[in-house]
Amino acid sequence: MSIDSHPQTGQPVGVPVDTTPAQRPEPVTLEGCFGRVEKLLAEHSAFLWDAVRGHDGLWTYMPGGPFDDDRSFAAWVAERTALDDPYFYAVVNAAGNAVGIFALMEIRENSRVIEVGNVLYSPALQRTALATEAQYLLARYVFETLGYRRYEWKCDALNAASQRAARRYGFMFEGIFRQHRIVKGRNRDTAWFSILDTEWPARKAAFERWLAPDNFSADGGQIESLSGMNGSRE
Asked: Please, what sign has the CA dihedral across residues 154, 160, 166, 167?
């Protein structure tokens, strides 16, 4: 933690920071090598439904779902497209099909703090290079275009997969907020993680090393893990 001294009292205070507000998320398209991230639209719902239907476990820790049919799912997607916070994006594969979503949320542009959440990765997206690349593209957008200084990841403390993902992507665990929320009528203790702007260059370098073509074998398997690059044991 960086500490300064108050000029009049001498008491310890935080160091001065740039108070220019960050920008709010916009309907951008973030192009990658394996696919792209783009603003969630109602027309994404058909491909998304094909990718997630029958996989009710995807919704256990989500605030909505699961859904009985494509119409109720499409209505849920349409509601998400109209929101400013959370601001939803679709993850689209090389074939042009939406296979996942996530959102930038809890947007505090004056403090330059933002969270990635509502992460819904279909089985077609899970454990693919695009799954990681999408997180890289969104984080790069948050830090380098929008100008945030703190990027948060929060999840149900019982969601072990989400906690593993956060650590793998380079988020630092900060603690558990007990009885933080009520979700679907159940208690949720929330695990908090973050990446700071000062940490982003190292995290960016790890993402780019992992995504480099020479980090993949002929059969598409990774040679060096992103967890290892980020110093995680996961």
From this structure: positive
